[in-house]
């Protein structure tokens, strides 16, 4: 593209969001894999988020739990693993090699070096890198034999996983770490193990572990360009600051990936420069009709970038985010966040619209229908976000 960059205003950004993020009615997906592929990554720190984020985007959400579980634990078309910012996500299986090479390698090297250093210092030199290599090989062999296993099961096969060492002696946060918990995390970011089926229901945070499926090694720069192209297609336009935040990469890596992927610069509101994927700089059609959605805490749409003013009024932030910047459950109307929701102990889905001044009867009816749709497929399961926010707490207690 030559000449001045094309301008993409807030209205067009909201239209792209509704269509690309599978939120507008006609854009909803037929399968969990389609949702994950469209979003690139489903935030997995809170296990319930994966299911709720998928259910909100399926045309038919009635069997959301069974379909997501089948994709994760039977078909393995979706994989739960560490990714950007050292955070757990659920990715399409075909993207795991790209994520690992673009992001995981640097994180993994630092995580392993940190474990070796902390383990030696906290054990008086008793637990060495060579010792860890032996324990690791034994644990991975046991995991391969079992197929899936909890940490407790693995420690039965390899008792040395129970070894402990002091951490941060003399600091305010000093404590005792167990080799098993640190080692499994390192193996996770190295792409050698993944989380398997949970011990409890789909909302449980206690997971079994499994040996990661093999994937081909990729040159990191090539992988970063590939991931950049995928993310801009799903979420663009985005600023350089958005991209650095989402990936956790260095600025030089972000700029290199933008150049290598052929990303195109566009103009955003307030004179800000953004980027879209190559060939995606043209205008997009509006969704066929206004849309409503109830998205869960940590949903990838509001959590995909730090710049949210074009879809979220700053006045709503204190009620919808915790002190660490984690978003709670949100209510959307036609590309904007207009409120929040929660589930009461009796299972009722309740919502409030602090920004309801400009929301009419059509919106209220559509939001009520989404709340009922959510209640119907969640059934008797009780959902409490892992990171609770002021409005969610207030609504849940009413």
From TrEMBL:
InterPro entries per record: AlkZ-like (IPR009351)
Name the UniProt record assigns to this protein: Winged helix DNA-binding domain-containing protein
Protein source organism: Streptomyces populi
